[in-house]
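[[Local backbone shapes]]
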Amino acid sequence: MAGTSLWDYIFIRASIFLLHLIAPLSVTYSLVSLLACLPFQFPRVLQAWLSLEALFYLAIYLPLNKYHQRAAKHPVPPCRADRRKLFLKCHNNIPDPAQYLRKWFRNAPVSEIKRDNELEEYTQEIEKLLGKKLEPGRGNAKCLRLTLEKVEMLHRSLTWYLCVFVVDTIASISLRYHSFNFHRTLTYWHRPHTSKTRLPILFIHGIGVGLYPYINFLADINAHVAGNSSDGQVGIIAIEIMSVSSRITYEAMLKDEMCDEVRRILTAHGWEKCVLASHS
């Protein structure tokens, strides 16, 4: 996992700042060198790198940014009964109602979330959950509308994707070292399950750079299992979701597509029951 100390935070923020400078500096240098005679010359390798970064920004990032602003493809709206069923399912799994509501309204104070910001019936259910009445009117809070808002893209340089490639290579070597096998098309790593008393683990990572931050976590599970070899080993399937792993890749699967893929994977390995572990 990523470090959580102050120095880790400073290092990460400084690295992000420097990586974000690459594109404007590359484009500026490339344009100026084409239009004017500079009094100095960078080494050819550095010039080639700056040119590639500028080309990547202009020819890949900008068109991709425009492409992602197209309207989202929404699934068929569920009927009222299904919407209520989904709402109640969420309702029954919220440990901190006030914090949950604030997060959906971009960390706005609860006092700014008022009745006219939501449909009446759902508002009444939220009030029961909160144990208090919401004020009438419309507050200053603005809610999250994930598939309706503009897609806010941030440029990532070729250097960043090279770093991700190196990290991914290290992760692949480490997983193979810890007895995992690689599979496609929804890519995942598999460690066979032989235990007779324990369930296998299905692991799904969060937003970041893939499985690399979780190598020690997965290896630690293996280390604990090694001490009780008479029962066999606990199997692990670690799924890679490329669309949230800092990759230029295909679009994220819809929920039903993802569930079908995971179901096929579990069936292929004969897993009828497993422990689901995830991180975000």
User: Anything to note?
Assistant: The helical segments are 6-35, 44-67, 80-91, 97-104, 120-130, 158-177, 215-226, 255-268. The longest strand covers residues 188-191. The CA atoms of residues 181 and 190 lie 5 Å apart. Strands lie at 181-183, 188-191, 201-204, 236-239, 275-278.
